[in-house]
Design brief:
Layout (H helix, E strand, L loop, with lengths): L1 H4 L8 E5 L5 H8 L3 E6 L2 H14 L7 E5 L5 H5 L4 E7 L8 H9 L2 E12 L4 H13 L3 H25 L6 H9 L6 H9 L9 H9 L3 E7 L6 E8 L5
Parallel strand pairs: 1-2, 1-4, 2-3, 4-5
Antiparallel strand pairs: 5-7, 6-7
Helix pairs in contact: 7-9
């Protein structure tokens, strides 16, 4: 969200949150003045977004709609309408059809709309390794147990070593993580979220740029990474649908 806000105020804008998850970004958008529509394929995520709305949003109910839906459902997407801001952070690479998801997201943009995408970076052999790990993890209970047995201790040990290198308590970062609840998760659950995040796709920032540019968008802002994290890109629609 921070990269988007560097280039645009949300006051008076229509905002669609594709894959709302916990609903935290939708809540931020509606509090910043947008009229928001949130949807997610996963019913648990829809319930979480609705619960967040119930607990922390006391404004006009019509300013924030929450529903279940899939960005890969052509009929559903065609009925959503157009928006001033199309937002999808870390979602489309988990749909099983990333490029179709990106195309569908772009189709929801008004003239002069902003499209914010965050997609896993292609790190070559490392990304391919994690694709295999995640696919194996999701094969069943035994696969999940074995994968967790290897990688959960690995991430705990790495975190502890980093803290000790900085002359801190070995559990400093883990305890701080659990207390703050980054993305609403403990350290352990965030590790599991990474290990088990499948479907899992990735691409380079230039591949996203080339794809979206052909649809009549210009680049507004970009934050790239050399890690397994997400490349974050904001586009602006500059002409009619192509």
């Amino acid at each position: 969200m921070s990269l988007l806000l560097e280039v645009e105020s949300l006051v008076g804008k229509t905002f669609i949150d594709i894959g709302s998850g916990s609903g935290i970004m939708s809540l931020a958008a509606v509090r910043l003045g947008a009229t928001v529509r949130s949807f997610d394929y996963d019913q648990n995520s829809v319930s979480a977004t609705r619960k967040l709305k119930e607990m922390f949003y006391k404004g006009d109910d019509n300013n924030w709609q929450v529903e279940q839906g899939s960005i890969l459902d052509d009929d559903y997407v065609s009925k959503l309408g157009k928006f001033d801001v199309v937002y999808s952070w870390g979602v489309l690479h988990h749909t099983g059809s990333m490029w179709k998801g990106i195309d569908a997201a772009c189709s929801l943009a008004n003239e002069n709309a902003l499209v914010y995408l965050a997609i896993y970076n292609d790190c070559g052999i490392t990304s391919r390794f994690w694709y295999r790990v995640k696919r194996f993890y999701n094969r069943g209970v035994i696969a999940r147990f074995l994968t967790s047995l290897v990688f959960v201790p690995y991430y705990y040990i790495v975190s502890m070593l980093v803290d000790m290198m900085h002359l801190r308590s070995p559990f400093y970062s883990i305890k701080r993580y659990d207390k703050i609840g980054f993305r609403g998760m403990s350290f352990y659950h965030d590790v599991i979220d990474w290990i088990g995040g499948y479907p899992y796709e990735y691409c380079t920032a230039s591949e996203i740029f080339d794809r979206v540019k052909k649809k009549g968008f210009s680049l507004v802002s970009m934050r790239t990474t050399s890690s397994l994290g997400c490349n974050e890109i904001v586009f602006k629609k500059i002409n009619a649908d192509s």
